[in-house]
Inverse folding.
């Protein structure tokens, strides 16, 4: 079998399905059977809660009883209850039982909600829940980045009028006064980039005050004798009416006691208002509470659920308004107890993360329901672990955790908090001295994380990796790992039974590890190989030497230190006496890098192997043709010799068409290829075919001689690793393979990225999407300088200006980030905001002599702190940061760009850079803030003042961690999604729609309601609904996609901008014109802030806006947007492109509506010429255009006649009424569909 599951069919994840090729037919059918199992029909039960009418609730047999609890705690009429049980015929239901396992529970059963006695834990949960209800509309948790809250602003622009509520408005022609004029800063050509509109004020957020204060009382905890009366804790409350009360939480509920601030009297007051719920009690003593709480809950349940569901991973906002700090007992308590997840309200209850992470991996996965359960558990634990690790890492850097080796100096300290091990990214004990010291120690954790990700995706049973999260916070890099049971009691030397702890000087191996790692060898393309240990004995490994195997006390086989899972990148690893291929040398490689850990990305390895596979097939096919030709000429078959493989050896793509030309130039190659494929699949018994395969294998560097199989030895070029003599040949081959892969990156991947940008299949809009585009093609960000140089030399450079600009801004902000990291390490906590604002002034402000403001108490504290040698990591005590100047910072940025990216920026200040590369300061501010975790006050900054700096320390609100972690995947859901996409591409919309709906169900099953992949799913569903004519459904799905994108990716992420555009289209189709315009204006504002006006996507956006304005007869405004779109399209698609022809046509239509026929004719002629040249006279587009030209000419002539008539006969002329037509909505919609690519037309 030709490496079928790795090389060309990317189905490694689907271990459960048939091998590779059977996947398309067999795989799907078995899946459809399985899916039916899941969709057990739901049923309805009646719920009877105290004091409310019974109501119906739809449930599904898979649900747990606990999920009904959650629903009740969220419903408007039962939300104030937390401590209750559900009873069926007097029997209490087990919270963790699945509904289908409960006897007698069926359609129509009555479940009673029964109040249960409180415990301390239940009372705390109750108070926390009430607090959450009181704060449910308050955005401060989202600004502060806690509890997985994040911002969403869609509802402000739609006024909540999407979907059903939208239909209730009168459907008539919605042309009665809508104000269509956008704010000045949104109009084409505006240079202003205000920041404040990024977060429009939501009127719902003006808090309705229910209480003034709700805190724990100072009388806690209850003394012994009160405990024996059932007192659990005491609360202190101040109502809106200024009534101060003290409340006892007892096992029976909440009541007023007679204590005051200074005297303790726990006896019940008269009346005591004993209530099972705190809300009931407060409603009785405070009329304002009753009124406002009811109103608040009404509003809360009206919000779209997606505005309030927690996201799986925390999203931080880089801007926030000034929020008043209010008293909040729960938050205060959280800060002092280590609250880790929703379940632990009592300090001292910590989770065994390692056990949880590994146990979920061991769950069965034989069929779909099992796999869903397993993936759901894995995902949940991972997101909890990431949250706990982030919290711990911040605590470590803020100095709130005691080190486990407190005697050592700060950089070497290690920490354990909540069963997670934390280490700092410094080179301790000269571990990385050979590899680049601190720079290597900084890069190792992310490499290790990539390794953990790769092994996790292969998911071999019996092989375990550590939970790993890498957190960058306040200039420090912290690695958080789960702890292998027993590892802390032993010395590392004794526990490592596989691999090496000293980079290959001593190496050991272990059969069980070899057997487990062998299963990862093919999917990860890692070659089994031998190395020598210190006694010169041969040791066999199936990973890099640093990869250590440790058997924990739990008997599991763990691997750790996976930083060299992927082979080294020779372009950044100069080796004495080794020459790189000419493609690399021409670009100035190899280059010296900061460290020796630079390795190739997994995506590159995949692409390289695929490229080699095509080459292999081509070689085999050409040889077969030669053999055939030789047979026909009856010469000796070997006289021709094997093909010379070196011609296409190094994967140099002469042009992207190379393969095609080859096929066209050699007759019969296609048949020969088919032959080659059958031949490769044979068992190789025929000697002739064996020879063909052997030659092709040799040519492409396969490790096997009988089939295509490329793997890499990750230890090649590792200092300290020695190979036995008998593998010299093999090592040579491997070295060549590595050189070829490095050359392939430069000669194939970078050009293909640029080509994708030219034909707009890759459209990066900001730093993050640019990085993603690089990574998808296996290009590391350290190649950014090389990519920019390549762009600079491209003939079509003008059409790549947007890409170049984004690249430059990314390069500059990354250099600034590197400098900022070391800058922050020297700043103590009390000076943090001053230091950050000073850095931003030096970086972005035109003010030439930015001076730092030292905090006034600086001098006092300096003397005291001298004595403490042992500082926490995040507490430098120097004020060196204050001496940074703008010119010095920019010198450093320029030298950093040169030394790290090998790219020359010839500028000495921010203003020169902005001028030279056409950047905008708002974009640079956004990029640096996101990369470093800074949160700034949202207000208008004057960057260009030469008299005062732009930022003061009051403008820096917070500094957040930047977190990297593994994203566990929902594999089955993903396969459904892919098959759905494939079906849609083949034109089977209905089947595609069903598959994608199924994928959506499975995604929800694994990820919960919020996730990036669900967002993609909803977007595609909405598009399909729309194409199939179900506009309302399209609107509802797209609304969810927008909300989810805002919440999970961020309110101004490029994907969110695109989602806004799609939603506007569906709104327009639904007749909600003013909403469509608001959404388009929002998208345009965000895009201006993120990347400025000069971007190909802006043309599409402006065409959309122009068309909608044309539809509401705002012709002059419409022309401003459409003409801007025409300019941008002409720039980025070339004056002869069909997009430009379409733009001309849209402009002509508006001029026609304005009765300016001369201008209309001029534009339509341009369009006609393009159609004629590109498509020929006979094409329907050309004909349409020529018809329209005729029509315009007639109109122009008619108008001229009328004018002449008026001139001749004055006021008594008999004037024919002219037909001025407002465009019909249908025609506008048709054009909107065309420009958004909804109707499939062959646009070049």
């Amino acid at each position: 079998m030709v490496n079928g599951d790795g090389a060309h069919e990317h189905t490694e994840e689907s271990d459960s399905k048939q091998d590779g090729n059977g996947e398309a037919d067999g795989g799907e059918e078995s899946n459809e059977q399985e899916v039916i199992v899941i969709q057990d029909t739901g049923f309805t039960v009646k719920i009877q809660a105290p004091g409310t009418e019974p109501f119906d609730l739809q449930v599904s047999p898979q649900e747990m009883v606990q999920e009904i609890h959650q629903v009740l705690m969220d419903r408007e009429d039962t939300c104030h209850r937390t401590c209750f049980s559900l009873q069926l015929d007097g029997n209490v239901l087990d919270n963790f039982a699945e509904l289908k396992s409960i006897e007698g529970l069926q359609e129509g059963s009555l479940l009673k909600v029964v109040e249960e006695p409180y415990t301390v834990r239940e009372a705390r949960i109750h108070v926390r829940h009430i607090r959450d209800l009181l704060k449910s509309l308050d955005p401060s948790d989202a600004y502060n980045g806690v509890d997985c809250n994040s911002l969403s602003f869609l509802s402000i622009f739609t006024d909540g009028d999407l979907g059903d509520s939208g239909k209730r408005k009168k459907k008539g022609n919605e042309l009665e006064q809508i104000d269509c004029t956008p704010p000045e800063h949104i109009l084409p050509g505006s240079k202003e980039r205000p920041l404040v509109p990024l977060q429009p004020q939501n009127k719902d957020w003006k808090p309705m005050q229910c209480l003034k204060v709700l805190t724990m009382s100072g009388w806690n905890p209850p003394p012994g004798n009160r405990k024996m009366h059932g007192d659990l804790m005491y609360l202190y409350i101040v109502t809106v009416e200024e009534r101060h009360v003290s409340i006892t939480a007892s096992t029976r509920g909440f009541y007023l006691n007679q204590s005051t601030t200074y005297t303790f009297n726990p006896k019940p007051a008269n009346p005591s208002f004993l209530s099972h719920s705190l809300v009931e009690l407060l409603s009785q003593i405070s009329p304002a509470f009753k009124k406002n709480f009811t109103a608040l809950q009404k509003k809360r349940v009206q919000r779209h659920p997606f505005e309030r569901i927690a996201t799986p991973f925390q999203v931080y906002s880089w801007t926030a308004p000034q929020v008043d700090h209010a008293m909040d007992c729960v938050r205060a308590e959280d800060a002092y107890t280590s609250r880790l997840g929703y379940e632990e309200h009592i300090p001292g209850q910590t989770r065994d993360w390692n056990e949880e992470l590994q146990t979920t991996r061991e769950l069965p996965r034989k069929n779909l329901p099992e796999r869903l359960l397993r993936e759901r558990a894995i995902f949940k634990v991972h997101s909890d672990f990431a949250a706990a690790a982030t919290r711990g890492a911040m605590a470590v850097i803020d100095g709130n955790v005691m080190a486990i080796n407190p005697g050592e100096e700060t950089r070497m300290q290690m920490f354990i908090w909540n069963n997670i091990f934390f280490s700092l990214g410094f080179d301790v004990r000269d571990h990385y001295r050979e590899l680049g010291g601190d720079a290597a120690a900084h890069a190792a954790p992310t490499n290790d994380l990539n390794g953990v990700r790769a092994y996790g995706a292969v998911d071999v049973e019996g092989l375990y990796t550590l939970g790993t999260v890498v957190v960058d916070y306040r200039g420090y890099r912290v690695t958080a790992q789960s702890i292998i049971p027993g590892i802390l009691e032993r010395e590392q030397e004794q526990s490592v039974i596989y691999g090496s702890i000293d980079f290959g000087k001593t190496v050991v191996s272990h059969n069980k590890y070899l057997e487990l790692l062998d299963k990862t060898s093919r999917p990860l393309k890692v070659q089994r190989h031998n190395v020598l240990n210190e006694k010169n004995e041969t040791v066999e490994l199936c990973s890099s030497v640093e990869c250590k195997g440790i058997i924990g006390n739990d008997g599991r086989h763990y691997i750790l230190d996976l930083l060299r899972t992927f082979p080294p990148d020779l372009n950044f690893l100069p080796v004495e006496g080794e020459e790189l291929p000419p493609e690399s040398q021409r670009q100035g490689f190899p280059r010296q890098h900061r460290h020796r850990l630079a390795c190739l990305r997994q995506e590159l390895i995949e692409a390289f192997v695929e490229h080699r596979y095509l080459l292999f097939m081509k070689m085999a096919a050409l040889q077969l043709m030669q053999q055939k030709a030789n047979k026909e000429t009856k010469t000796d078959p070997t006289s021709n010799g094997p093909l010379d493989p070196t011609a296409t050896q190094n994967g140099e793509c002469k042009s992207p068409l190379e393969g095609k030309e080859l096929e066209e130039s050699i007759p019969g190659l296609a048949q020969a290829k088919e032959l080659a494929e059958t031949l490769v699949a044979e068992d190789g018994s025929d000697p002739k075919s064996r020879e063909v395969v052997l030659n092709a294998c040799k040519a492409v560097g396969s490790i096997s001689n009988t089939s295509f199989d490329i793997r890499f030895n990750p230890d090649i070029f590792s200092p300290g690793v020695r190979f036995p003599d008998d593998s010299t040949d093999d090592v040579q081959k491997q070295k060549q393979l590595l050189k070829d892969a490095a050359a392939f990156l430069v000669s194939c991947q970078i050009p293909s990225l640029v080509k994708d940008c030219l034909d707009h299949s890759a459209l990066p809009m900001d730093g993050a999407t640019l990085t993603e585009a690089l990574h998808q093609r296996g290009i590391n960000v350290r190649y950014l300088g090389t990519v920019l140089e390549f762009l600079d030399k491209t003939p079509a450079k003008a059409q790549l200006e947007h890409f170049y600009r984004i690249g430059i801004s990314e390069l500059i902000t990354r250099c600034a980030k590197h400098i900022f990291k070391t800058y922050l390490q020297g700043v103590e906590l009390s000076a943090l905001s001053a230091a950050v604002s000073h850095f931003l002034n030096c970086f972005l402000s035109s003010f030439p002599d930015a001076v730092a403001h030292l905090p006034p108490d600086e001098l006092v504290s300096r003397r005291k702190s001298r004595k403490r040698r042992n500082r926490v990591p995040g507490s430098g005590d120097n004020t060196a940061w204050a001496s940074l100047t703008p010119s010095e910072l920019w010198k450093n940025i320029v030298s950093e760009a040169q030394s790290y990216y090998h790219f020359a920026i010839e500028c000495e200040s921010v203003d020169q850079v902005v001028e030279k590369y056409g950047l905008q300061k708002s974009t640079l501010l956004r990029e640096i803030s996101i990369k470093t975790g800074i949160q700034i006050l949202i207000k208008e900054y004057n960057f260009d003042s030469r008299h005062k700096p732009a930022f003061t320390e009051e403008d820096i609100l917070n500094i957040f961690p930047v977190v990297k972690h593994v994203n566990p995947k929902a594999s089955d859901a993903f396969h459904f999604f892919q098959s759905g996409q494939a079906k849609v591409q083949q034109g089977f919309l209905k089947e595609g729609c069903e598959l994608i709906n199924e994928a959506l169900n499975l995604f929800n099953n694994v990820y919960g309601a919020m996730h990036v992949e669900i967002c993609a799913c909803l977007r595609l569903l909405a598009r399909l609904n729309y194409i199939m004519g179900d506009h309302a459904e399209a609107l509802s799905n797209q609304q969810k996609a927008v909300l989810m994108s805002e919440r999970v990716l961020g309110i101004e992420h490029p994907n969110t901008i695109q989602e806004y555009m799609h939603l506007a289209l569906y709104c327009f189709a639904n007749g909600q014109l003013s909403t469509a315009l608001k959404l388009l204006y929002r998208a345009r504002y965000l895009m201006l802030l993120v990347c400025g006006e000069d971007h190909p996507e802006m043309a599409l956006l402006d065409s959309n806006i122009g068309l909608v304005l044309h539809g509401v007869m705002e012709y002059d405004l419409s022309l401003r947007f459409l003409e801007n779109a025409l300019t941008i399209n002409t720039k980025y698609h070339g004056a002869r492109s069909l997009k430009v022809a379409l733009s001309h046509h849209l402009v002509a239509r508006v001029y026609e509506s304005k009765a300016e026929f001369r201008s209309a004719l001029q534009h339509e002629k341009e369009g006609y010429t393009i159609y004629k040249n590109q498509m020929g006279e006979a094409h329907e587009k050309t004909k349409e255009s020529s018809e329209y030209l005729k029509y315009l000419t007639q109109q122009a002539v008619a108008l001229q006649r009328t004018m002449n008539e008026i001139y001749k006969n004055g006021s008594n002329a008999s004037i024919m009424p002219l037909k001025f037509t407002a465009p019909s909505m249908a025609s506008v919609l048709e054009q909107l569909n065309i420009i958004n690519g909804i109707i499939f037309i062959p646009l070049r």
Observations:
- DSSP finds 42 helices and 23 strands in the chain.
